[in-house]
């Protein structure tokens, strides 16, 4: 038997994405305070920043009145392409 439909507040989902993005940014900043860490793991630290950017962009997208326009305005072409391409 299937579960009853529970409406999801998209605004709250966006808020959670923003909060997670902020947590990831704080983690990245903390790691960047260690010069040796930065030297050894620059690519990984950049990936942490990229994840946070994507989370904030997805949150903005969920809050947008027109998602089509919001995807075009993302500024993160790799994320926009993934959202437009239904195969990924």
Shape: extended
Query: C-alpha Rg, in Å?
Result: 16 Å
- Helix residue percentage: over 70%
Into which percentage range does the β-strand content fall?
under 5%
Whole-number average pLDDT?
A: 87
Instruction: Give the topology string: H per helix, E per strand.
Output: HHHH
What about the largest sheet? Answer: none
Task: Describe the structure using short key phrases.
88 residues, mainly alpha, 0% strand, single chain
What's the quick description here?
With 88 residues, the protein is an all-alpha fold. The protein has helices at residues 10-32, 35-63, 67-72, 77-84.
Describe the structure.
With 88 residues, this protein is mostly helical. 75% of the residues lie in helices and 0% in strands. It has four helices and no strands. Helix 1 packs antiparallel against helix 2. The protein is extended. The chain starts with 9 loop residues before the first helix and ends with a helix.
């Amino acid at each position: 038997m299937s579960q009853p439909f529970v409406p999801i507040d998209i605004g709250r989902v966006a808020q959670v994405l923003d909060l997670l993005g902020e947590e990831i940014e704080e983690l990245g900043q903390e790691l960047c305070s260690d010069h040796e860490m930065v030297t050894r793991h620059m690519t990984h630290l950049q990936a942490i920043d990229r994840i946070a950017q994507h989370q904030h962009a997805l949150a903005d997208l969920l809050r947008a009145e027109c998602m089509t326009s919001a995807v075009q305005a993302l500024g993160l072409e790799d994320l926009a392409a993934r959202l437009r391409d239904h195969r990924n």
